[in-house]
Design a protein that fits this description.
alpha/beta; about 50% helix; 10 helices; about 15% strand
Length: about 250
């Protein structure tokens, strides 16, 4: 049983930042190589899910970890408030349309989990709906991973309450970050404890496990995410396709 309150949001004691950053650079370069191989082989796909509280660094993780990947093999999608068309279907209808094709890495910056997090926190759906939706999400992810060769990697960006306040305030104080400021983020912060309860419940009830990433220090976030993805891709033992004979 995972208890988020017992997991540090900081790197382990004794970790050397310079060494970690050097290793991260190597991992990011290696990820670029593996992504190119994935795209060439066309036998697997990868779905990367980033979830976390506001200011937990989802955009930064995407920008820093995937910077050596090719544009034609990586795509990012962020789920916003459903449109009228999307509301008229089941909650996973819009998600299934965005899953990666063979040879592609698709990144969800926020994801289908919003439908059992924000809606649950604000009590827009019943607990019975929550239970059914979690079952549906587990079945959906298993379908992707075991029936379609999609590697599903889920990252919970573990941010402290104190660090979130610092990050949100920077969006007000620093001009180059003003564009990120959203007053609604401060309102959602008032529900912190309930969000933690809901995140913890979802993490513990997921069939495909989550990676809990300490993000109070962004340099360590980049390392954990890059290392996890590289290790998964290397486990696939991918090969470049041979030249086809006439």
């Amino acid at each position: 049983m995972i208890k988020l309150s017992e997991i540090s949001t900081n790197p382990p004691e004794g970790v050397d930042r310079k060494e970690i950053e050097k290793e991260t650079d190597k991992l990011v370069d290696r990820l670029g190589e593996l992504q190119y191989l994935l795209h060439a082989e066309q036998k697997h796909s990868v779905l990367v899910v980033f979830q976390g509280m506001d200011a937990s660094g989802k955009d930064g993780a995407v920008r820093n970890v995937f910077k050596e990947c090719t544009f034609d093999g990586v795509d990012v999608y962020s789920f916003k408030k459903p449109t009228d068309e999307e509301f008229a279907h089941d909650f996973l209808w819009r998600v299934h349309q965005q899953v990666p094709r063979d040879g592609e890495i698709r990144i969800f910056n926020r994801s289908h989990y919003e439908d059992v997090l924000i809606q649950r926190v604000h009590q827009w759906i019943t607990e019975k709906h929550v239970d059914k939706r979690i079952q549906a999400i587990n079945a959906f992810e298993e379908l992707l991973q075991f029936d379609n060769n999609t590697q599903v990697l889920k990252f919970y960006l573990h941010l402290s309450y104190e660090q979130q306040a610092i990050e949100l305030q920077e969006r007000i104080d620093e001009r180059e970050k003003n564009w990120k400021h959203n007053e609604a983020d401060w309102k959602e912060r008032e529900h912190w404890d309930e969000y933690m309860r809901c995140y913890e419940d979802v993490i513990n009830r997921s069939t495909i496990p989550w990676t809990i990433v300490p993000v109070d220090k962004r340099w360590y976030r980049n390392y954990v995410v890059a290392k996890t993805i590289v290790e998964r891709l290397e486990s696939l033992n991918m090969e470049y396709p041979p030249l086809e004979k006439d």
